[in-house]
Amino acid sequence: MSREISVSHILSVNTVFQRRVTIWDNLNANDYDYRRLCLGPFSGRPTGLSSRLSGMLTNPNCEFELNFIPLNTLGQWFQSLKLNEIQDQIDDNDEESLQIQQVYRVETALDQALIDWLPEFNKVKSACDSIKVCQLNFDFPNSSIVFI
Amino acid sequence: MKNDNSPQEMSPKPAVSSLILDEDSQESQTSAKVHIMDCDGNGNSSDLTIDDIRLLVEFFYLPFQHGPHAQQIYVDFHWLRFNYFTNSDVCFFSKSKTVDEFCFCRETNGIVEL
User: Fold this and answer.
1) Is A104 helix (H, G, I), strand (E, B) or coil?
2) In the predicted model, what is the mean pLDDT of chain B?
3) For residues A42 and A74, is the Cβ–Cβ distance under 8 A?
4) What mean pLDDT is predicted for residues A100-125?
5) CA A139, CA B9: separation in Å to the nearest integer?
6) Could you say which of A56, A62, A109, B57 would form a disulfide bridge with A39 (CB–CB 3.0 to 4.6 Å)?
7) pTM of this structure
8) What is the number of CB-based contacts under 8 A between chain A and chain B?
């Protein structure tokens, strides 16, 4: 897996495939070594990638419950993309508006994810709960998938 | 007969011999339920802080790096591993507080607190 994925790297891959690629991100995957756990936050992928990609998929840890931080921070990353898009539209319409760029910072995203995760530890759960949550459907888009 | 059951002995309330048998069994059941709820870990897990979870996350961080706090702990242990004997000599031979000894004590305290 890549420690960092730069915009220039993705641009060069796009020119090879002649289309915007989808990233299958193995950043937090641990299926190659079960002794490892990767609970760390989504990092090393700048928000500038979004316009050059047709999608971003994450390959999480095999232990579903331990993916709270990776999924939460990936969600924050995606949210910052959306906020930036909205901000760009506002800036185009009204030039006097303040330019507030929602930058995804790993440290603040991790802090927020930890705050969100803490209540999960106080919940009393049964085995049935995790089965319901794990029933996820993945739709693969019609595009090149790059394994990184 | 009932007084010999172990749940009654485990219940915090003292067993009263004059109770009717039905009431006595109910009381032992409720106390047993309370006991099970304690075992569910509500009391223990509420003691978890964000710093505890942060430390867990930083020890199992990303495939190519540890979190900053975990890195600091490894650095501190590395320091201890290669400075323990020399600094213990300093502590043994000199009665006065040297700079090295002070540093050693401070580092040790830091690790114990973490």
Assistant:
1) coil
2) 61
3) yes
4) 87
5) 58
6) B57
7) 0.63
8) 48
Angstrom distances, CA of residue B29 to CA of B5, B23, B52, B101: 12, 10, 36, 59
CB A22 within 8 A of CB A56: yes
Report ipTM for this prediction.
Answer: 0.74
Q: And the tokens for A117? A: 């995760």
Instruction: Report the distance separating Cα A111 and Cα A127, nearest Å.
Output: 28
Tokens 């009391």 belong to which residue? B43
**Shortest distance, CA B73 to any CA of chain A (angstroms):** 17
Task: Report chain A residues whose CB lies below 8 A from the CB of B62.
Answer: 27-28, 38, 40, 43
Closest C-alpha to A110, from B63, B59, B57:
B57
Residue A8 confidence (pLDDT): 94
Q: What is the pLDDT of residue A37?
A: 93
The verdict on A87 touching B (C-beta cutoff 8 Å) is: no
d(CA A40, CA A1): 14
